[in-house]
Amino acid sequence: MTSINSLSPSPVWTIFSQICSIPHPSKQEQALRTYLQNLANNKGLETQIDEVGNLLIRKPATAGLERLKTVVLQGHIDMVPQKNADSTHNFDSDPIETKIEGDWLTAKGTTLGADNGLGVAAGMAIMLADDIPHGPIELLCTVEEETSMRGAFELKSDWLKGEILLNMDTEDEGELYIGCAGGVDINAIINLDFEATPADHSAFEVAVRGLKGGHSGLDIDKGRGNANQIINRFLMQFMAALDLRVTHFNGGTLRNAIPRESFTTVIIPTRQLTNFKQAIETFSQLMKKELGVTEPDLNIYATQVSLPERVIALEQQKTLINAIAACVSAPFRMSDQFANVVETSNNLAIVKSVADKLEIKCLTRSLINSARDFAAQSIAATFQLAGAETGLSGAYPGWKPDPNSFILKHMISGYEDLFGKTPAVKVIHAGLECGLFGEPYPTMDMISFGPTIRGAHSPDERCHIPSVEKFWRFLCHTLANIPRQD
Question: Does the structural domain 184-396 have CATH classification 3.60.21.10?
């Protein structure tokens, strides 16, 4: 098989193929929303778009099933735009190029957009189908989930009619999620002081590349390297010995992705050239020894560049490097309630020079809102000690688990009937929109599930093709067996 359109279930893959052809990074969902709305309108279905840009599609029940409870199928229509440094892909205009590798579907040098394109494709396939029995259903397609969750934040409390919500945005087939972490963004801005570049110096761009990166919630406990931390560790270790000075930082691109690449421009005395090259090699071997199992493609190197006219003032440089070193980018604590689940974590996502400022962005997550806030305040305080102006923004709540959920029991039974085994019931250390839906719709019974996806938020993103078939069968079975209204 060489084409997505040859895969099964055909209704899902056909729509996903079209989704891949339409650029849809966060805040640029209009074209994809229009495509989905046109599909629904051509089918004669009711559609609405709210002030934020969320799309809602309603479909009447199959004849004879009008008394089943109304179900909301939900996914987000934006994707994370990440690509390898050697990729020429333009997320504003280019389609995602997909390829099949055995049982996996991936993209060529970019994120795939299976998160959450496959969930949206499955929901749309249900809305267009004539041969799948179901009660009244609504398909809610939200916007900006990957950047701010704005679509979920601003969802109107009188818009949805459903009593049950099936969020199709988790990434392990055979698992049902009943809770998730909340999060908050940390923004730190430091005004930089500069000095004239000393004479008899050479400039180099030090690069850390080849890391796996990944989802800053789902992958934060996997021991992967953080490019910003690694490059800062090099600076810390060799700054004094090499009389090394920093002129520019450029690490990470998205606050919810573990940074795979980081680039820092430094200058060194010309007399230190041999020592500098040896330091790069020594440090590279050290990191490969430490991270060789989790990061087999780690690459650290230096490229000579034009000598800049100025460098960051020495004392401020020391303070900045110390502050970045003190910023935790890992799990803070594991959950006491759920085995092998991270409770609280932080991702040092972006360290970037912008004009005369240094911008640092982190995303802190926790299953417990108070722990989320304390961790974020602690990290902000670290950068305040380095002279930063800091702010916390975009806080969203976690989704409190309800082990007595009626739809949970219904779906467990349905999965057992279909596949002869009991699905795992879990909470997830990632932000799902369910936490926000619970505020305008406090009585909504919610479950999150989906096909198996690996490497979300990175160019390694891939979807397990056979899991999509199982996910689809389970979705159809669930809809056909929704309980009746009281």
Answer: no
